[in-house]
Amino acid sequence: MRRSLVVANWKMHGSLNDNNHWIKNFKSSDLKQLTNTDIVICPSYPYLAQLQQSLLGQQNSHIFLGTQDVSSFANGAYTGQVSLSMIKDFSVNYVILGHSERRALCFEDDKLVADKAKAVMAGGLNPIVCLGETLEERETNKTHQVIKRQLQAVLDSVKSEDNLSNLVIAYEPVWAIGTGLNATAEQAQEVHRTIREQLTSVLSAELAANIRVIYGGSVKPNNAQELFNQPDIDGGLIGGASLDAGLFLEICTAATGRK
Length: 259
Ligand code: PGA
Prior knowledge:
Elements (H helix, E strand, L loop, with lengths): L3 E6 L6 H12 L9 E6 L5 H8 L7 E5 L16 H5 L3 E6 L2 H6 L4 H13 L3 E6 L3 H5 L3 H16 L9 E4 L13 H18 L2 H6 L1 E5 L4 H8 L6 E4 L6 H12 L3
Helix pairs in contact: 1-2, 5-7, 7-8, 8-10, 10-11
2-phosphoglycolic acid binds next to β8.
């Protein structure tokens, strides 16, 4: 069985003070009980140092830092961008890419997301590539076509990379993000299965079987267990509920207990 993975996407939330409260609450629970789950916290860039200092450590080797994006450029005259080498300075291991908010609001297309995934992987980090259909696409039966196109762009770009098992895919139906309307476990499993089939058709069976595919979109403590018990769902990408350390821990516990 693939290791469970739960990722907190804090989006543009947080402050030094709020984060300190969150960290205190998070660390007050018995994190050792969650050692069979990889837990990734993705704050905004200014807070990486705070989290690096207060959260990472030998006894928490299953807890990692991530970012919500990274530049596709290595370094240079790119005002406002943050490079891979910079985030590596803060012990970052994971990078969320192609989140639907970035695709919609920052005009990121499949090619840019694929280029970033390649750069992240070549740098030895784990890209978490988000795929997802809009409500209109779902209602016009285009879900599989959209997911396939988004995934193929990434696979074409990264398939010759050595550390391909670092790749993580997040299925996040756009209509489920921040709306309280999660995909049902059956709806999510159906898309996850087709993602797994597409991975298998492009990569070796062993490699495809090792890549983790997580679900995101209104995951809460009351629906996490059912979602995570699906055979092709390896964990979750959590937005709103990750801002509350208690709720987030309940979701991590559900991932740890997945069947
Ligand atoms: P949500 O967000 O859990 O608030 O729906 C998920 C995400 O955008 O990654």
